[in-house]
């Protein structure tokens, strides 16, 4: 009941019963009629607020889980899967969309779980703080046990998907298990267990896992056998993916040093970190130029992303590291997509060993 309705009740009360009531009774009736609507409104508002808080809490929780996965980094796993599948299509002349989707979900699940492991151990070791890029646990958006459960869930999803791929692919079990569990182990050991990240070996792990290993996995699932050819074609993409990690580690040099861990960026210092980042950015373009001039012009498509690379180089050189890992990941995604398009559009037999 609103204020207008309450006023109407008071008028009717005065008209119908005011003449037979005493002053005290009349005042009491009017007070009750004026207070009751507000009590009803506040009770309704409280119930609505509770329902809204419950719905908002679930939405906030789901958003927190998504952010904990660092979805901006998923280009590092999606583009290798797309590249491996494109190489299989060029070699065999056919592509199974179901196997492509299964490979993508498998690699994404392992990647997401690895990001959660990284979040958990960085927090446990006191590396993450209020100014860190990942504050999922620092700000108590999620509890540590939530991150652990979600990571276990994603690793389980990855294993189920890998089993499904074995059921429908002609790839031998031992070959699929070798690649899959190699990638799973790398995603965990990057910060968990041995913690390669903390002893300056994280770059090596990322360079291998989110490059050659993921490309070979997607290619082998499609064609049913292992081949060394995808390793060669994975090099430009692996360099671009490593640029994401290196930009992140260079940005976090001071906090990592204070936490007592050692990364490649800390070992080589700011100047050589800039040189390495520049090499990682532009060496893939040199490879694409060679492929375009010697084999097929379609391999020049990734060169369309060069302006983004120069913009990132200028930002890195000015030591403005705000959002630079995310921007490097965006470049990685676009470069990878153009690379895949270039391979797909290449004439049959134009590219070596394909």
Could you explain the architecture of this structure?
This protein is mainly alpha-helical. It contains 13 helices and no strands. The protein has helices at 3-17, 23-68, 75-92, 97-124, 144-168, 173-189, 202-223, 229-233, 235-251, 253-259, 264-294, 306-317, 324-345. It is globular and about 55 Å long. The termini are far apart. The model is unreliable at 1-53 (pLDDT under 50).
Q: Give the SSE order as H and E letters.
A: HHHHHHHHHHHHH
Task: Report the β-strand fraction as a percent range.
Answer: under 5%
Distance between the termini: 76 Å
Instruction: Tally the beta strands.
Output: 0
Tally of helical runs: 13
Low-confidence stretches: 1-53
Structural class based on helices, strands and sheet pairing:
mainly alpha
Give a quick account of the main beta sheet: strands, pairing sense, barrel closure: none
Helix share, percent: over 70%
Averaged pLDDT: 85
Shape: globular
* Rg for CA atoms: 30 Å
From the structure above, extract its key features.
354 residues; disordered N terminus; mainly alpha; single chain; 75% helix; globular
Short description:
By secondary structure, this protein is mainly alpha-helical.
List the helices and strands and how they pair.
Blueprint: H1 3-17, H2 23-68, H3 75-92, H4 97-124, H5 144-168, H6 173-189, H7 202-223, H8 229-233, H9 235-251, H10 253-259, H11 264-294, H12 306-317, H13 324-345
């Amino acid at each position: 009941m609103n204020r207008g309705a309450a006023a109407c009740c008071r008028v009717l009360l005065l008209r119908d019963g005011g003449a037979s009531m005493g002053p005290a009774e009349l005042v009491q009736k009017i007070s009750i009629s004026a207070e009751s609507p507000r009590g009803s409104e506040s009770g309704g508002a409280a119930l609505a607020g509770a329902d809204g808080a419950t719905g908002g809490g679930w939405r906030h929780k789901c958003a927190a889980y998504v952010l904990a996965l660092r979805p901006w980094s998923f280009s590092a796993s999606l583009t290798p899967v797309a590249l491996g599948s494109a190489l299989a299509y060029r070699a065999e002349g056919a592509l199974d969309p179901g196997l492509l989707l299964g490979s993508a979900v498998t690699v994404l699940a392992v990647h997401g779980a690895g990001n959660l492991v990284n979040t958990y151990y960085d927090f446990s070791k006191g590396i993450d703080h209020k100014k860190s890029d990942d504050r999922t646990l620092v700000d108590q958006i999620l509890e540590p046990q939530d991150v652990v459960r979600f990571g276990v869930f994603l690793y389980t999803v990855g294993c189920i998907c890998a089993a499904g791929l074995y059921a429908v692919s002609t790839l031998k079990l031992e070959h699929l298990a070798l690649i899959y569990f190699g990638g799973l182990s790398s995603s965990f050991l990057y910060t968990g267990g041995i913690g390669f990240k903390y002893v300056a070996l994280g770059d090596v792990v990322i360079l291998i896992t989110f490059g050659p290993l993921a490309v070979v996995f997607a290619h082998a699932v499609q064609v049913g056998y292992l081949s060394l050819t995808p390793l060669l074609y994975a090099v430009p993409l692996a360099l671009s993916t490593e640029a994401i990690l290196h930009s992140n580690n260079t940005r976090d040099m001071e906090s990592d040093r204070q936490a007592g861990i050692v990364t490649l960026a800390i070992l080589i210092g700011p100047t050589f970190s800039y040189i390495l980042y520049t090499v990682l950015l532009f060496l893939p373009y040199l490879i694409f130029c060679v492929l375009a001039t010697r084999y097929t012009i379609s391999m020049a498509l990734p060169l369309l992303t060069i302006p983004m690379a120069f913009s990132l180089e200028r930002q890195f050189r000015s030591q403005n590291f705000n959002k630079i890992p995310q921007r490097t990941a965006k470049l990685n995604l676009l470069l990878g997509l153009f690379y895949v398009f270039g391979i797909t559009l290449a004439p049959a037999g134009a590219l070596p060993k394909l």
